[in-house]
Design a protein that fits this description.
Helix content is 47%, strand content 11%. It is mainly α. The protein has one domain: Four Helix Bundle (Hemerythrin (Met), subunit A), CATH 1.20.120.450.
Length: 188
């Protein structure tokens, strides 16, 4: 039976029993929902403000926006590799590369989104339950099943930094998009 979404009343959503949904499908659906929100946020990043930082210890706006645009690209690393060691030169693709402008941010998002989709489609629920490790300085910082790492180190981490980015947007007089509900700029 269709369930009305409170924020999109005109778009009914089919209720799906969790027993019917695979872990893999859960992540694919989550990926698609988050991509819409990331895109809306990145579209508000103003040109020429990449060096803005609200505090001397804060990231610059350009670096933060680049981080947000690239986080979905971490999913293939978590699916296709058993670990990520920051010290290993083969991990260079994991490091955030500052993008020069909004178009480059959106392109990086689309590249990471396509790679994440491909990796998720090619994997299995069983593989998502196997361990994945994050290492630095020869030490294991965190090791959990891939599914937990994707949920925490990608999606929760993304929500944190996207929220941080919306604060930066407000501070540079850009508009803040409605993400999980209305914003002060998009209240209807």
């Amino acid at each position: 039976m269709p369930v009305e979404s409170p924020t999109l009343a005109a778009a009914p959503v089919e209720a799906v029993s969790l027993k019917q949904m695979s872990l893999k499908q859960f992540f694919i659906d989550k990926l698609d929902r988050e991509a819409v929100l990331i895109r809306k946020t990145l579209e508000r990043v103003p040109e020429g403000k990449n060096d803005f930082r609200p505090h001397q210890r804060s990231m610059t706006l350009g670096y933060l926006a680049s981080l947000v645009s690239g986080i979905l690209g971490w999913i293939p690393l978590m699916i296709d590799r058993d670990e990520l060691s920051i010290d290993d030169p083969s991990s260079e693709g994991f490091r955030t590369k500052p993008q020069a402008n909004r178009a480059a941010l959106l392109s990086a998002l689309e590249t990471g989104l396509a790679a994440a989709h491909a990796s998720l489609r090619a994997t299995t629920d069983q593989h998502l339950l196997t361990p994945w490790a994050f290492k630095m300085g020869g030490r294991t910082i965190q090791q959990q099943p891939r599914s937990i790492m994707i949920a925490d180190a990608v999606f929760s981490h993304l929500a944190h930094h996207r929220g941080q980015l919306t604060v930066y947007l407000r501070l540079v007089d850009s508009t803040v998009p409605a993400l999980y509900g209305p914003s002060a700029d998009e209240f209807n």
